[in-house]
Please model this.
Amino acid sequence: MVIETADPCQRLSSTGNVQMDYYVAMELNNVLSNLTGTKESIKGAKMWFMQRSSPFAPVLAEALRDRIFTIDDSERQLHIIYLVNDILFDSLQRRAKLQDLDNEALAFKPVLGSMLARVFLSG
Model:
């Protein structure tokens, strides 16, 4: 079941999470397809993620997890882990209180363990 919201670009799933619209999903696919292990590539992907994380953090985190599970190349899987590391480190730097979890930390909390396990078992 999908619930419409006041913002035409956002919809809520039956679990209450904001669903990505088509354009954000396509942009994410493009960002991940072009992701390499270079510092510049990861930084650019992190900036893209952080610009969209406010409404979409949980669904973007799930999409990154799903991408790790759909690719078999352990190097490309690691690139996504490097991206997640940069996202979480950047969000940590912006926290007023270090012990409080921010949107990004809360979004990755339920998926990070399975992401790391997948990469570990693939490598």
In short: Residues 1-15 have pLDDT under 50 and may be disordered.
